[in-house]
Specification:
- The protein has 168 residues and is of the alpha/beta class.
- It contains four helices and six strands; from the N terminus they run βαβααβαβββ.
- The protein has a six-stranded mixed beta sheet with strand order 2-3-1-4-5-6, sandwiched between helices.
Length: 168
C-alpha cells in the first residue's frame, strides 16, 4: 500500500492561553502548505483516504491537503493519530479501513518520523519538518518487511535519495 505520513503545517506557538489541542495553523503555515499541495498533486499524490489527528492544527492541515489535491473522499478524524501514534496505532487505523490501497495520515512529531524510520528500518534517518510529507510503499501483510522509500517533500523540495535524508 501507499502510505503518506504528513506532519501538520506550522501552527501558532505554545502559549498559556491556547490549550495544546486547540493550537491552529498560522496564516504563513497555511499558505506554505497550500503551495506544497500543488506540488504534491503534480507528483501524483492521490490517497484513497486522508485520516487526521483530532488536534486542530492537524485537522486544518488535512483540510488544506484535501482542497489542494481536489480530494473528494473521506476525511475522518481519528484519535489514534493524536500524539503517541505508532506502528500499533497504524495497524489499528488500517483495520478500520480495510481495502484501502493508499492512505494519508496527518499527525505530529516525533511520532511520524519515528514510524517512518521504523517502517524503513533506518533509525533516525527521517525527520519530518512542519508540513513535510513522507511517501512509502509498505506491505501491510508483511509488517516486518522493510518499506520502500518513494520520496520526501520538505520545505518545497522533493527528495528521492534515501541515502541523503540525514542531510536535510
Amino acid at each position: 500500500m501507499l502510505l503518506f505520513l504528513v506532519r501538520h503545517a506550522k501552527a501558532v506557538e505554545r502559549a498559556f492561553d491556547i490549550p495544546e489541542n486547540h493550537r491552529f495553523l498560522t496564516p504563513d503555515g497555511r499558505e506554505r502548505f497550500r503551495e506544497a499541495t500543488q506540488k504534491l498533486r503534480k507528483k501524483g499524490m492521490e490517497p484513497d483516504i486522508i485520516v487526521t489527528s483530532p488536534l486542530v492544527r492537524a485537522v486544518q492541515t488535512a483540510e488544506v491537503l484535501a482542497e489542494g489535491l481536489s480530494f473528494r473522499g473521506q476525511l475522518p478524524v481519528d484519535e489514534t493519530l493524536a500524539p503517541g501514534f505508532d506502528l500499533d496505532g497504524l495497524n489499528r487505523l488500517l483495520s478500520r479501513h480495510p481495502g484501502v490501497k493508499s492512505m494519508a495520515c496527518v499527525g505530529h512529531e516525533p511520532d511520524l518520523s519515528e514510524l517512518g524510520n521504523q517502517l524503513l528500518q533506518t533509525p533516525d534517518a527521517v525527520i519530518l519538518r512542519k508540513g513535510a510529507v513522507l511517501a512509502l510503499e509498505w506491505n501491510r501483510n508483511a509488517p516486518n518487511e522493510k518499506a520502500d522509500f518513494l520520496w520526501l517533500h520538505s520545505k518545497g523540495v522533493f527528495h528521492t535519495d534515501p541515502q541523503r535524508l540525514k542531510d536535510l
